Amino acid sequence: METDDDANRIMIAGGGIGGLAAALGLARRGRAVLILEKAPALGEIGAGIQLGPNAFHCFDALGVGEVARAMAVYIDALRLMDALTAEEIIHVDLGEKFRARFKNPYAVVHRGDLHGVFLRACREHPRIGLEVDSEVVGYAQDSRYVTARLASGATRRGVCLIGADGLWSNVRKQLVGDGPPRVAGHTTYRSVIPANQMAEDIRWNAATLWAGPKCHLVHYPLSGWKVFNLVITAHNDAREPAAGVPIPQDEVLKGFAHIHPKARQIIHIGKDWKYWVLCDRDPVENWVDGRVALLGDAAHPMLQYMAQGACMAMEDAVCLAHMVDAFPEDLEQALVAYRNRRVLRTTRVQLLSRAMGEHVYHPDGAHAHLRNSVMRSKTQEDWYESLAWLYGSNGLEDNNFGG
Ligand SMILES: Cc1cc2nc3c(=O)[nH]c(=O)nc-3n(C[C@H](O)[C@H](O)[C@H](O)COP(=O)(O)OP(=O)(O)OC[C@H]3O[C@@H](n4cnc5c(N)ncnc54)[C@H](O)[C@@H]3O)c2cc1C
User: Fold this and answer.
1) How many domains are there within the chain?
2) Among 1, 193, 259, 349, which is most exposed with the fewest C-beta within 10 angstroms?
3) In this structure, which residue's CA is closest to atom 49 in ligand 1?
4) Is pLDDT larger for residue 256 or for residue 399?
5) CATH of the domain at 39
6) Ligand 1 atom at minimal distance to the Cα of residue 136
C-alpha cells in the first residue's frame, strides 16, 4: 500500500550506473528515491571501463570519491598504435602534468566494481528504495504526480520519473518515440584474461588502442593488475543488434586477418569471447516531458569510442541532483534546467564518438597516413588543451560543451 510520503519520492527506471548515481545524488540532497529495475538482480557485465578525470569529479560530488579511487588502476598513458605497422602513432601522458591540469586522474576499473560502489552506497542510504523485477513499461502524469506502469500490471507513484533505462529505454519510447536505436554496423568482441596470460611484449600499463582499416583493438589492465580487459571491434556491417553473445575464436579472427601479428595475437590470447553489435542514436533535444526526464544512455546513447558513456551518465546524475536542489518547489523547471545544461555537451560527445570511429580508429590508406601525420604533429600540451572542455568539467558549468 503506497502512502502520501511514497508519492513524494522521485522514481528512477533503471539501476545501471546512471540510475544508481542519480539516486545517490538526489538522496544526498534530501530527496526520497525509488529505483525500479527490470532485472531480477542488479549487476554489471565482467568487463572494464575507462574513466576520464570528469568521472572522478562526479565521484567526489556524489560522495564516493575515496572508495572509487581505491578500486581503480591508474594507467600511465593512452597509447594509439598503428595496427598495420605495429608502430606507436601517439601517446597521451597521464602522469603528474595531466593530473595537475585536470585535478584528477585517468583510470580504468572493473564495471562490476564501479557498479558495486554505487549499489552499496544506495543500499546504505535510508532515503533510497530499490525494487527488482520491475520493468517500467509506460507512465501517466498530472500536475502533481507521475504514475509508472510496470510490466507486472502494478503501478508506482512519485513526483518525478527519471528514465535511466538504457539504450532500449521504454521511457524514451513514450517520451521521444524515435523507434529502435541505429545499428552502427560495428561488432565489438570482449574477453577478460588473467594478467599473466597477456603477451609480455604488450603487457603495458596503458589504455592501448590499435587502429587498423575497419577495425581496432583495445587492451588495459584491471582489478589491481589481476586481469586484462580485451575489447576489439570490426566494422563488418552487422545488421542485427546483439549483446553479450558467445562466439568462437575462429569467428572473431575473421575481421582481423589484415593486421600486424603483434596486434592480432590479442585475439589468440583472449578466451570465452562474447560479442555486441553496437548501436547509438542521433542526438535529440526533447529529454523532458513535464515531470519525466531521460538520463544516461536513455537520453544520449553513444558508441564507446570516446570512452565516455558512463562518464556522461554520472555527469547527468550530478547535474540532475543539483537542479532538483536549485528548484525544490518546481520540479518541472528543475528538469528543464537539467536538460538545458546537459544537452549540448552530450550531443558533442555522441557526435565525436562516431567521428572517432570514422576518422581515427578505422581509416585506411591515405586517410590513415593523414591521421598519423596530423596526430604526430601534436605536443602533449596540444592534447591536454584539446581535451580540456571534456576532462576539466563535471558537466555542471555553463558552456561545458567547449563552445
Ligand atoms: C563495448 C563498450 C565499452 C564501453 N566503454 C566505456 C568506457 O570505457 N567508458 C565509459 O564511460 N563508458 C563506456 N561504455 C558506455 C557505458 O557502458 C554506458 O554508457 C553506460 O553503462 C550507460 O549507463 P546507463 O545507466 O545509462 O544504462 P545501462 O547501463 O544500460 O543501465 C540501464 C539499466 O536499466 C535497466 N532497465 C532497462 N529497461 C528497463 C525498464 N524499462 N525498466 C526498468 N529497468 C530497466 C537495465 O536492466 C539496466 O540495469 C561502453 C559501452 C560499450 C558497449
Assistant:
1) 1
2) 1
3) 16
4) 256
5) 3.50.50.60
6) 42
